[in-house]
Amino acid sequence: MIETVTAQQTGTLRAGLPGEVREATHRMATGVSVLTCGGPETVEGVTVSTLALASLKPPVVSVSLREGSRGLHSLLTVSHFVVNTLAGHQDDVARHFASRERTSGTSQLPAGSWEGLSSQGIPLLHDAVAWLECRVTRTLRVGDHRVVFAGVTGSAHRNAAPLVGLAGKLYPGPFAHDTSDPERDQ
Predict the structure, then answer these.
(1) Residue 166 neighbours by CB distance under 10 Å
(2) pTM for this predicted structure
(3) I need a labelling partner for 174 at 20 to 30 A (CA). Which of 49, 63, 76, 157 fits?
């Protein structure tokens, strides 16, 4: 049964003005990831909270990046990138890759911040809870953003609490237990 909610309970719903939409979407909890691309000397990264699974068969992810942004430019310059899903304690890494003043290359972070290289030679962030190696397959301009679709070519994960964004702040999320269940409906 669908329950009717009154305007008094929710506030008055208004037309989707950009500021109001932004405030409403800041109330949606999202995972926080850093997309990395390029080689060790030129690696670029960008913090995102718009990553989504677009398809499981075949595995495809989507991410939305602002038109004209350094992150979008970097992603469109190469064909492969890595999604590094950040752990609950990596808020400093998220802030670093969100900064417009960040430098390029592995030397931009302290020693021990990198895990190694993906099969395409892209640096992986140490301590991430999951890594997806991806190949850009298509982009679609939507308003002031571009949605990038990418096929997943490799993955790895570990059981740890992820970093979650909510209302413009970063929080450690709940511990991620192994959810593999052969009986689960796919």
Answers:
(1) 14
(2) 0.84
(3) 63
